[in-house]
């Protein structure tokens, strides 16, 4: 349980936090560390980011926040998310996200900063942040869906399917769940067959021409989460979510 890193020409980083892969603050930092380690290894030519269990990622561990007095847990989670998303984005080699089941909140942050996304046919993507009294990862959702749909999803918390994202071209391939990891590896193998120096420079150059600074944009969003928490709105929404479950 936790974050597993399997090193090699194709490195695999696997998230495993039962029951729903809602990561505690330390888990986000562990994920960032694993991605840094994979990217720093000169043998690595591509990274597959996958998960075990019922879904790819349910976001942050709200229970951790609610059992911790004061703002420390919220701040730790937000810094952890920022670190993990940045580690995907800044990884010197392409990162292929293999998404199955639910991809919520922080999961969208990971998928939206990945270079490529391969998804299972049961995968859904959503930002339930407004219902949780928080904001964030619209920066990353905007890399997956058109602008007006992104706004609709933020305001209503409605999900979209992997097939919808495939029509937009932001999910490369939709496959049966049993073949998801293999499909992600097939893409990784195509990348790994290229000249590794060229691929690393390609990743750097593509990040350099991005129209939006995703790290700064996400931290701007997080500022409104801090504001909502100071008013007590965030805490009430998180508690209501736990009680309704």
From TrEMBL:
Gene3D superfamilies: 2-enoyl-CoA Hydratase, Chain A, domain 1
Alphabetical UniProt keywords: Lipid metabolism, Lyase
EC number annotated for this UniProt entry: 4.2.1.17
Any one of the GO BP annotations: fatty acid beta-oxidation
GO molecular function: enoyl-CoA hydratase activity
Signal peptide annotation: none
EC main group: lyase
InterPro entries linked: ClpP/crotonase-like_dom_sf, Enoyl-CoA_hydra/iso
Superkingdom, natural source: Bacteria
Key word Thylakoid present: no
Family indicated by similarity: Belongs to the enoyl-CoA hydratase/isomerase family.
PANTHER family: (7AS)-7A-METHYL-1,5-DIOXO-2,3,5,6,7,7A-HEXAHYDRO-1H-INDENE-CARBOXYL-COA HYDROLASE, ENOYL-COA HYDRATASE-RELATED
Name under which the protein is recorded: Enoyl-CoA hydratase
Species this chain originates from: Actinoplanes utahensis
Top-level taxonomy: Bacteria, Bacillati, Actinomycetota, Actinomycetes, Micromonosporales
